[in-house]
Specification:
alpha/beta; binds nicotinamide-adenine-dinucleotide; 16% strand; 13 strands; globular; 4-stranded mixed sheet
C-alpha cells in the first residue's frame, strides 16, 4: 500500500489520478491532497477519499473547507503547507499536478525529501531544471514522467532511464539512442491560416481536438508552447541536448512519442489519447496496472505525421532557442508564457500576441546562473513584470 500526496487534486490530472486510486484501493491510499480555491469539490473529494491532510492554497477557501468538513481530515492553507504535505514522512508518492510555476516549490520539496515524484508539472523543470535534478540526485528520489510524451519515451527505454538511487540509471538502450521524437497533435489551429489565428477566442483555443485538459495547457497546446515546454522537459528528464530532441506533428495523438536508435530501429509507444495510461504507469512502475483506458484499434486509425510549421507556431521555435541559450532564458520563457496566456484568457490580448509578449520578454531579460532557488524566484518575478509591461502594450 502506497501513501500518495496529490497536489492539484481538483484539476484534470488530479481527477484522473483519483480514478486510478479508486480502481486500486488495495494498492494506493490518498494521504494528502491539495487545491487552490475550489473548496466545494475538495469537500466532496475529502469525504470520498478521507485524506489525513487537505491543503487549500487560498486561505479563505481553506476556512470554508474547514467549516464544511466534519470528518477527520485536517485542513491547512498556503504554500508552505503544500510543501509540507509533499515532504511529509508518511507519504511515499507525490503526484505533482498543480498548473504552472505555482507547482514548482512543492514538487521540489518532494524531490528534496526523496519521494517518488510523479511529475505532471513540466513548468518545474523549465523554471528550475538544474536545481530540480540536483535535488532528485542528492536525495535518492525517483523521478517518473507523467506527461504522455515523456512517459512514452520512458516506456520505450524500458528497462530504461530514471533518476533513482542517487544517479541517472539507464540500461544499455540509452547508449545507442540517436534522438527522441516528441509527437504533437498540432492543437485546434493546425489547419487554420495564420491570419485567422489573430482573432481566435479563448474558448476556441481551449477546445482541444484529442485531449481534455486544464485551460492553461490547452492554450499552450494551441500555440504549441506546450511542445516547447516539453522539449525542455525532455532535455532534463533524459539528459539530452537540443540536437537530440525532435518534434513531429501527429494529429491523431495515437503515437505518443518515439526513440530512434543508432541501428536504424525506432521504438514508439501507442495508445488512445487518455492521460490515465501515463498516470497509472507512473504509479505502478516498474509494473503495469489496469487504468480504465481501452486499447487502441489500429485497424480503425489513420496515422499521419508532418514536420511542425515553426513560422506559424513561433512559440515552439522560441523554446528551442532558449534551450540552446540556457537557464535564465528558459525561466523567462515560462514566466512570460504564463503571463501572456492569462492575459489572453482574460481577453486582454490576441492569440498571436502571446508569442510576441514572450519574445519581447526574452529580449529584455539579462542572463544569470540559476543555481539557487531564491534567485530563480526573483528572476521569475522580474520576467513577469517585463511580460506584464509587454501585455499592456498590446492590450
Ligand atoms: P488544471 O487547471 O486542470 O488543474 C490545476 C490544479 O492546480 C487544480 O487542482 C488547481 O486547484 C491547482 N492550482 C491552480 N493554481 C494553483 C495555485 N496558485 N496554487 C496551488 N494550486 C493551484 O491543470 P491540468 O490540466 O490538470 O494540468 C496540471 C499540470 O499537469 C500542468 O503543469 C500541465 O502542464 C500538466 N499536464 C497536464 C496534462 C493534461 O492532460 N491535463 C497532460 C500533461 C501534463
Ligand atoms: Mg504532453
Amino acid at each position: 500500500m502506497k501513501n500518495i500526496t496529490l497536489l492539484g487534486a481538483t484539476g484534470s490530472i488530479g481527477k484522473s489520478t483519483l480514478s486510478i486510486v479508486e480502481l486500486h484501493p488495495d494498492k494506493f491510499n490518498i494521504f494528502a491532497m491539495s487545491a487552490n480555491k475550489n473548496w466545494r469539490l475538495m469537500e466532496k473529494l475529502c469525504i470520498k477519499f478521507k485524506p489525513k491532510l487537505a491543503v487549500m492554497a487560498d486561505e479563505n477557501s481553506a476556512s470554508k473547507l474547514r467549516n464544511a468538513l466534519d470528518n477527520d481530515t485536517e485542513v491547512l492553507s498556503g504554500n508552505n503547507a503544500l510543501c509540507a504535505i509533499a515532504e511529509n514522512s508518511e507519504t511515499d508518492y507525490v503526484m505533482a499536478a498543480i498548473v504552472g510555476a505555482a507547482g514548482m516549490p512543492s514538487a521540489l520539496a518532494a524531490a528534496n525529501a526523496g519521494k517518488r515524484v510523479m511529475l505532471a508539472n513540466k513548468e518545474s523543470l523549465v523554471m528550475a531544471g538544474d536545481i530540480f535534478i540536483k535535488a532528485i540526485k542528492n536525495s535518492g528520489a525517483e523521478l517518473i514522467p507523467v506527461d504522455s510524451e515523456h512517459s512514452a519515451i520512458f516506456q520505450c527505454l524500458q528497462g530504461g532511464s530514471l533518476y533513482s538511487n542517487n544517479s541517472l540509471t539507464y540500461t544499455e538502450n540509452i547508449n545507442s539512442l540517436s534522438k527522441i521524437q516528441l509527437t504533437a497533435s498540432g492543437g485546434p489551429f493546425l489547419k487554420m491560416s495564420f491570419e485567422k489565428m489573430q482573432s481566435v477566442t479563448p474558448e476556441q483555443a481551449c477546445t482541444h481536438p484529442n485531449w481534455s485538459m486544464g485551460k492553461k495547457i490547452s492554450v499552450d497546446s494551441a500555440t504549441m508552447m506546450n511542445k516547447g515546454l516539453e522539449v525542455i522537459e525532455a532535455h532534463y528528464l533524459f539528459s539530452l541536448g537540443a540536437s537530440q530532441i525532435d518534434v513531429v506533428v501527429h494529429p491523431q495523438s495515437i503515437v505518443h512519442s518515439s526513440v530512434f536508435f543508432n541501428d536504424g530501429s525506432t521504438v514508439s509507444q501507442l495508445g488512445v489519447p487518455d492521460m490515465r495510461t501515463a498516470i497509472s504507469y507512473s504509479m505502478s512502475y516498474p509494473n503495469r496496472i489496469e487504468s480504465g483506458v481501452k486499447q487502441v484499434d489500429l485497424t480503425k486509425q489513420k496515422l499521419e505525421f508532418f514536420s511542425p510549421d515553426y513560422q506559424k507556431f513561433p512559440c515552439l521555435d522560441l523554446a528551442f532557442q532558449v534551450l540552446r541559450k540556457g537557464g535564465s532564458h528558459m525561466l523567462a520563457l515560462n514566466a512570460a508564457n504564463e503571463v501572456a496566456v492569462e492575459a489572453f484568457l482574460k481577453g486582454k490580448i490576441n492569440f498571436l500576441d502571446i508569442s510576441k509578449v514572450i519574445e519581447e520578454t526574452l529580449g529584455k531579460i539579462t542572463s544569470f546562473d540559476s543555481k539557487v532557488l531564491k534567485d530563480v524566484v526573483e528572476k521569475d518575478q522580474q520576467a513577469r513584470l517585463i511580460a506584464l509591461e509587454a501585455v499592456n502594450c498590446y492590450a
